Amino acid sequence: MAETGRLTSAGSPAPLVGPVTLLRVAIILGALAIWELLAHSGWLYRDVVPSLLAIGRALYALLTSGDYYFNLGVTVGEIGLALAIGALSGVAIGLLLGANRFLSKAYEPYLYYLGPTPKIIFFPVMIMWFGVGVESKIAIGALSCFFPVVLSVAAGMRAIDKVLVRVGKSFRADPWQMAVKIYLPAMRHPVINGVRLGLGFALIGTLLAETKLSNKGIGFLIIQAYSIFDMPRMYAMLIVLFVLAIGANALVGRLGGLDSIKRS
Amino acid sequence: MTAAPTKCSTLNGLAPAAVGFGSLVAFFIAAEILIQFGVLNRFIVPPPSEIIGSFYRIITEEHVFSRFLLTAGECLTAGVMLTVFGVTGGVLMHRFRLLQQACETWVAALASAPFVLMYPLFLVIFGRNAWTIIMMGFVAALPPVILKTIEGLSGTRKVLVNVGRSFNLSTTQQFWKILFPAALPTIFVGIRLGLIFALINIVGTEFLINFGGLGQLIEDLAERYDLAGTYAAICFVILVSVLFFMALEKAERWLRPVG
Questions:
Q1: How many whole angstroms separate alpha carbon B129 and alpha carbon B173?
Q2: Chain A residues with CB inside 8 Å of B17's CB?
Q3: Collapsing DSSP states into helix, strand and coil, what is residue A207?
Q4: Full-model pTM
Q5: Of A20, A203, A212, the CB nearest to B101
Q6: Right CATH for B57-255 from 2.40.37.20, 3.40.190.10, 1.10.10.10, 1.10.3720.10
């Protein structure tokens, strides 16, 4: 039966384009057609839905402008620093809470409930503490990043196989060696997941802070485009931002080897 | 004989909570002392006693409860919309496997997209009103509801599906009697995640566009440089968020089967 199946499948060549790809192309083309129809219909306010050509032109102008790359550099720098501060402190405190049941029971409920509160509401406080410059944006990004990392690391540490911990102890590993040789490699998956989540939150926190009060960065450019009602430019910036955010998220997962973890 | 160990274990269980709460109180007392002695600038960090004192003021003068009701109403509307559209979307994607294969990765990618940054666009489309805020909450919260609905329906145990088939159930009966009840706990996890996303985006958008309920209150007080009031309003939002998540957790536990 198996042989027959193999012969049959070898005999009929696979279609060049599968039904899934066809459906995807159809959905994209349909969405673009509806968009263009809306742009020319006059049903919505003029320029709320600009034509695809206008968005394409704005995208080209954006990607060939030096000013855009300067602002992108500012935002990337802020997010990078926010991620470094938030993730490092999150991993350190997460390890501490995960290793000590008493500390976990004492402090983790506060972190657990503070975690999902909207961090942007702390922005007025951050302005008071760190000023109106890039520091307050980095601070709000770091604060947003900290919570998912600390909760993910603490939970990951508690889920480590007890055998691995006993092996480390039987080799008389000191706390640093236990952290570097046992805990961190064993909890690679939750740490990467926490950092991935943290990156997303740092990105949102930093960019929202830029839209609220800033004179540089991508958030500032978006709110500037809104204030002068330059809709094609705003759409172009949002498209680039979405691509960058989704790409950065996927990259962190790939660099951290999430695929290989899943396979194993 | 058994009373003593029980009492001891109860005390052991309460000790971490007491230490946690005690640390929080000690932190506030230390902050109060440092501010009163001028080590910390009171124009940057107001004394905790002043923050506690301003609670009554913001409740009575800033109409906190009507603002709370406004934010809660926005959350409720977004919640109903994302339950209806998210669950329906997930069911449709599960029903039409080709659609699921084509779109599931897109929905998963959108779950990590910073939707909240689209608020200037939503302001242009819907205007500076509650619908902008509701739609921000709804759009940002939709992907987890769709993904969890698909996960719940796909994860239905084969035995249950086979039981349905052995009773010759129609596709509709199979869905309502077998698939949907089995997937309900996972779907509720998705709705809970969605509501959390919605609340974050709704309060965040209120703060950013200075319109609506609790988010606007923080922005108003910060603009007036009412520091104690700003901190008190932030504490109030945190309190509301915590109560909201606790209520959702309780509801989820109630829905989840025992064991």
A1: 42
A2: 105-106, 109
A3: helix
A4: 0.81
A5: A20
A6: 1.10.3720.10
